[in-house]
Amino acid sequence: MDAPHSQVFFPSGFSELFAVWTRFPDAVLFAGGTELVRSQDGRLLVLPRNILSLNQMDELQRITRTERYLEVGAMVKLNEIIQLGKTVPEVLSMTLRGIAGPFLRNIATIGGNLCSSRRKMDAAAPMIALDARYELRSAAQVRWISASRFSSLPGPPAFNRQELLTRIRIPLEQWDYSLCRKMQPSRPGEPGEGAAVFIAQIQKNILTEIRVVFAGQIVLRDKNSETFLAGKQLPLDRREAKQFVELWKTYLSAVEIPSTILQAKLLNFIEAGILGLTD
Ligand SMILES: Cc1cc2nc3c(=O)[nH]c(=O)nc-3n(C[C@H](O)[C@H](O)[C@H](O)COP(=O)(O)OP(=O)(O)OC[C@H]3O[C@@H](n4cnc5c(N)ncnc54)[C@H](O)[C@@H]3O)c2cc1C
């Protein structure tokens, strides 16, 4: 039997997009389409019945910069963001460079990365750490949501019905110390995949801000340990660094972590990060 046909719609503006979505409520948003391909293991590609491609939506391809923010449309490719160079906070650029290979990064979009329902994909961690905000749009309204709220629950992102991500606003603060690490499972299918980032701000040898975020099946961030170190003189002494790691251990023991290997890898990353701020 022939496979059922798929219809692909290419709206060029929001009114057209929402008109199609109302007519075909099962329509699936399609950005770079790399996730759709990744999730298939058959010889023939199986596509959803109705596809709403975002490719002709010029408004979603825009990049703007003010003194305080970088704003990127949801359809901006990962490589386009990397190519903005020093405008992009280092931790975001580092994380994006770690996603797949250069060919895929020319196709994959930032919106598709942040809206995956598989897990919180790699760009989520730096976006949360940098206090990014997302513009979400439905036919009825436009609303803004913080990256941390958007990714706060396990499972798919917090969308209302027939709503899409349109813009990402990234604050352009100065971060003096940036690290990121991809957490890969030891065996395929093992939980615990994701990305961790570590950023810090330093003013006149004082650690003014420190943030550590992991995003994968769940998001992990311990604000208690961040407050403990804020305001300390640099370089930190080893005792303070050790206490920071201990606070993270306490935090991790209280949350449900997808795997003990992830816990060990995360603590190793945090320890390496904090040691970089000691003498
Ligand atoms: C070989 C390979 C390696 C990969 N490696 C990595 C990796 O190392 N790290 C990583 O993070 N990811 C990885 N990915 C996953 C994926 O490629 C990326 O997450 C990519 O950024 C997804 O972007 P896309 O534009 O292709 O999204 P799509 O596949 O088009 O969409 C992804 C999901 O988001 C929805 N969506 C897309 N745009 C919007 C929007 N604007 N609003 C609401 N929903 C939307 C779609 O409906 C779909 O459910 C890999 C994929 C492949 C095939």
Task: State the helicity in percent bands.
Answer: 25-40%
Q: How would the global form be characterised?
A: globular
Largest sheet: 5 strands, antiparallel
User: Low-confidence parts lasting 5 or more residues at pLDDT below 50?
Assistant: none
Strand percentage, roughly? 15-25%
Query: Which ligands accompany this protein?
Result: flavin-adenine dinucleotide
Distance between the termini: 69 Å
Structural class: alpha+beta
How many discrete structural domains?
Answer: 3
Order of helices and strands: EHEHEEEHHHHHEEHEEEEEHHH
Q: Which fold does the CATH topology of the largest domain refer to? A: Uridine Diphospho-n-acetylenolpyruvylglucosamine Reductase, domain 3
Strand order of the largest sheet: 4-5-8-6-7
Based on the coordinates given, report the CATH architecture of the largest domain: 2-Layer Sandwich
Question: How would you describe this protein?
Answer:
It contains 11 helices and 12 strands. It has 279 residues and is of the alpha+beta class. The chain has 3 domains: 7-53; 58-171, 2-Layer Sandwich (Uridine Diphospho-n-acetylenolpyruvylglucosamine Reductase, domain 3); 177-275, Enolase-like, domain 1, CATH 3.30.390.50. The strands form 3 sheets. A 5-stranded antiparallel β-sheet has the order 4-5-8-6-7. It has a 4-stranded antiparallel β-sheet with strand order 9-10-11-12, sandwiched between helices. The longest helix is centred in the last third of the chain and has 17 residues, at 238-254. The N and C termini lie far apart (69 Å). The site of flavin-adenine dinucleotide has 29 residues, from β2, α2, α6 and β8.
